[in-house]
């Protein structure tokens, strides 16, 4: 589905939870198969970036936006929970150009979802005209507390944070943030942020953040790069009770996200609460980054001014071994401005992402990766290697807290 159309799709959202859909595995009977997401054909034949984007094109997706004026606003980076599982499905992730999944300790991860470009509008909730004049203020979330790892990401994308407060020791290391609070003290998942408020906060932050970062950092090409390996799936185990599968869907040309139910065995197709549609991303990127555990749930990452480090990039059913960097180069030295985390090949040239959305997974530098078997069993995925399978495994070993 075209990214522009995804924003327009918010006009007809149904605010409800949808039943989970079992993940297909070899030999399994698939039930409740979702309607395939159409390929974003408008992106075909396009190739531009990192610094020659046509007017009105989002430099974080390579796709046109509905309202180019919104490209003048700073990005919103919203802290969205992934645990407990009652928070799922989350609301709004399918509209985020970039989602960063970070480790927060005790086997859990949290999402920092970046919103930039068009903002959704209020409209008849059903889209059938029966409730004409009735407006619905859609929300994103559930929103949870801030983390140390958010600040370097925020700086590189020149945006502002939206979070449900933070521990004082963390908050002291964060800047440019807005707190939102829950509506029910007995429900840890009750903090949400209205999409209309995101635009208002962006407009309020525009003067302070203007010129802080240059988002023209990515190369987009509808044609995949030469080389690479078969990459039809990625299994990433942050913990036995926090396993993720990304599986390539040929009909949409993108990857669907599956996750276990914190039970180590039952994988479900993840959806967006706002639409009921699968979470589908054109690019899935694994970045190998130095993690430092200052305490069990106080994790930091070295993301500032880094020379090229290892990255795995999944697009179009292929896996590419590439690099990420935030090195202080001529542009930064000349302008004093930062750029986003950049993806490059072995020669230092920009690596071409597929036009669309990108999900970033962070793992420690020592994390092993290999091709494994197509299975839902942890013991198989963790213990068996099968070169040429196209099913890639990345093992996450939590950083040990400093003494």
UniProtKB/TrEMBL annotation:
<keyword id="KW-0732">Signal</keyword>
<feature type="domain" description="DUF3048">
    <location>
        <begin position="242"/>
        <end position="360"/>
    </location>
</feature>
<dbReference type="InterPro" id="IPR035328">
    <property type="entry name" value="DUF3048_C"/>
</dbReference>
<dbReference type="Pfam" id="PF17479">
    <property type="entry name" value="DUF3048_C"/>
</dbReference>
<dbReference type="InterPro" id="IPR021416">
    <property type="entry name" value="DUF3048_N"/>
</dbReference>
<dbReference type="InterPro" id="IPR023158">
    <property type="entry name" value="YerB-like_sf"/>
</dbReference>
<protein>
    <submittedName>
        <fullName>DUF3048 domain-containing protein</fullName>
    </submittedName>
</protein>
<dbReference type="Pfam" id="PF11258">
    <property type="entry name" value="DUF3048"/>
</dbReference>
<feature type="signal peptide">
    <location>
        <begin position="1"/>
        <end position="28"/>
    </location>
</feature>
<feature type="domain" description="DUF3048">
    <location>
        <begin position="60"/>
        <end position="176"/>
    </location>
</feature>
